[in-house]
Structure formats: C-alpha cells, structure tokens
Amino acid sequence: MRTIDSLGDLRGRRVLVRSDLNVPLDGDRITDDGRVRASVPTISALVEAGARVVVCAHLGRPKGSPEPKYSLRPVSVRLGELLGQDVAFCEQTVGPEAGQAVTDLADGEVLVLENLRFNEGETAKKEPVREAFAQQLAELADAYVSDGFGVVHRKQASVYDVAQLLPHAAGGLVVDEVEVMRRLRQDPARPYAVVLGGAKVSDKLGVIESLIDVADRLLIGGGMVFTFLKAQGHEVGKSLLEQDQVDTVRGYLDLALERGVQIVLPTDVVAATEFSADADHEVVPVDAIPADRIGVDIGPDSARAFAEALGDTQTVFWNGPMGAFEMEPYAEGTKAIATALVERTRAGALTVVGGGDSAAAVRQLGFADEQFGHISTGGGASLEYLEGKELPGLSVLEDT
What we know:
17 strands
C-alpha cells in the first residue's frame, strides 16, 4: 500500500483527500469531533508539504440530493479550528463552482467540498454513474489520498473509483488503522480477548466465525447477547432477539467449545419495563428474565466477571456497547468494559476500541482517547477487515 511519500514533491499540487468527517450533529453543533480530530494529522502533513488540499467527505445518509441538515459547513469550521488556519468551504462538490474554489487555493491552503452524498453518483450501484462522478472529482486534483478508514469497505466513487484515475496513496490514518488491524488478525499477543456488543448478532456473525480461529476469549454483551442466551435455552422476555439466528449461534457455541475458545456470557442483566431511562428496572439472573421486561444492560455480577476475564489479557478488541449506554441507568456495563481496557492499556496491553458506538460510548462516558491503545474510526470497516474480507478502498491502493 503506497503512502504519501510515494507521491513525491507536493508543493503547488492539488491533492484530493477522502477524509471521514461523518460526525454526530445537534443542529450545527458537533457532539463528538473524534473523526475530525483523527483527520487532522494527514491534512496537516499535506499543508506543511505545500499542497493545495481539497477535502471531500460525507455526513449522514442523504439520498443523493442536498439536505441542509447534512451540510459539512459546521464540520469545516471545526476542522479550521483544529488546524489553526482558515478553511474554505464550497457549497458544491463538483462542477464549475467547485473548480473555481480549487483554483483560488494557494499553496498550503485547505478547502472542504460539500457532502459527497448530495450527489447520486457517490453511492450509485451502476458503475457508469459512479465512474462519471469520480471523473468530476478527479478533475479537481492532481493526486488522491485515501484517509477515511471508516469507508474503505465501500465501493463508492470517492473511495474506489477516483483512486483509479489519479496518482494515489494511503493517508497516515489509514496506514495506522491497517497496521493495528493486521496485528489483531495475524499475530496478537496473548491472551487475546474480543468483546462484542451492540444490537444485532447478525451484524457480527462473520467476525465471530473468523475470530473463533484467532481469539482466546469472546465476551458477548449488548442486545445481541439475548440470541446467545436463547440458544442456551433461556427465555429472554421482550428483549431484542433474532430468532432466525438462534441455531447459528448455537453452532458457534459448540464450535468454540470444540476449539477451546472461552465464551463469556452474562449471568445477570438489567431488565426494564420499557426501553426508556425512566422505566422501572431491576437486576435479574439470565435464567429469570420476566416475560414483560426487556434487557437493557449486563448486570453488576456480569460486569465484574467480564472485567476479570480481561484482567490478564495482552490484546483486546472491543466493538459494541454492553447496553443502552446513552441512557445513564444502563451505562454501567459499558463503563466497566472501558475501565478494564484502560487498566490493561496501563499494563502495556494493546487495547483497540473498534469505532462506531463503542468510540462514541467511551467519549460520552468521560474517557479520553489517550487512555486506550487505539480508537478506530471505522466500526464496519474494522469488523470486515477482521473477518478477512477484501475491502475495495484498500485493495485499490495496492494497485500499481
């Protein structure tokens, strides 16, 4: 995979950078700027090299046409604050207005283009439509840098197609992410534990199957755990359940036992009358979940057992919260995992928070990025890499 150094002297050259600026917004206020901060080192390096930096990114899920609530303008303002310099913003992504905005750049200046997904060509399934949009993006630049790890698993115009039209390289963020994921897949220091949570087990089936061959322990929490508990014969009340995956999960439990992989499941859960912070809730054993209640977090005994299972680990990968952490009464399980990872980081272990809701959770709960070995910017990309899938946005960077 080629790095920025392979592009040679960049002074005065127009460099299109695909960043990941998909941050949560409350109106115009960014509630978690982690991905913006993660994009700064590569953009700063290009600025220092004298490049004319053209940043493209998406935000949210607009349907191929402009939606003001998904504008990147507030993100461009925050990027400027972090870079310590003015950042220009263009209300168009491609076309004459975007072309003029790029022409107006001086060496070392930065421009952010409007949301890529305001254009149907960005995510089009039909290759000619996608390629036509990529061609418009390519006309704005002399070189391309891929620095949005969170989208490298997508075959999209700004991720895949444009890299085939310009001299291209991986940015520092992508290089770092791939190196960490490679360590998790190929040669992890042991004991190696994987903590999986989140809502749906179906989202994690591939990575579970893959990690049974690599990890020493799998700790399962979040909404997905109730499919595991059902596979063990427990009733789960009104908890989230994927009935069609019960047999598959039962097969994984048997396979883990056969291969000597320890699977750690909760022994107690917090069960609420409804999915609300104000609902009546209680801690119950997993074999006594009331029929009229929904599981919203792992219980205190389980939180202690999970922390103990991580106590001697040398490598930990965590993807997915243990409960509905966004509601304070149900955040304790997730907080316990985060605390355990911080302690392992201090002890010299490699701890990786696998992006998405996990990254949002640790920040919302008051933890600093620096307390963990690595916080990934790509939840889905991380899982697909660990699953062993080919990621289009990475494979295209390996082309000569």
